[in-house]
Amino acid sequence: MIDFRYHIVSLTAVFLALAVGVVLGTTALKGPVLNNLKSRVSGLATENKGLRNDLRDLRTQSGKTDAFAGEVAPALLPGRLTGKTVTVVSGPGASTADRDAVVADLSVAGAKVVSRVRLASDFTDPKRSAEIKALVSQLLPPGVQVPESTEGSVQAGALLGAVLVKGNGSAVPPASSSAVVSGFQSLGLMSFDGKPDTADVAVLMTAQPLTGSANKPRNAAMLGFVSEFDKLGRATVLAGDTVKGDGNIMGAVRGDDAIAKRLSTVDDVNLAAGQVAVVLALAAEVKGVSGQYGIGSGATSRVPPLPS
Question: Domain boundaries in the chain?
Answer without folding.
Answer: 1-76, 79-293
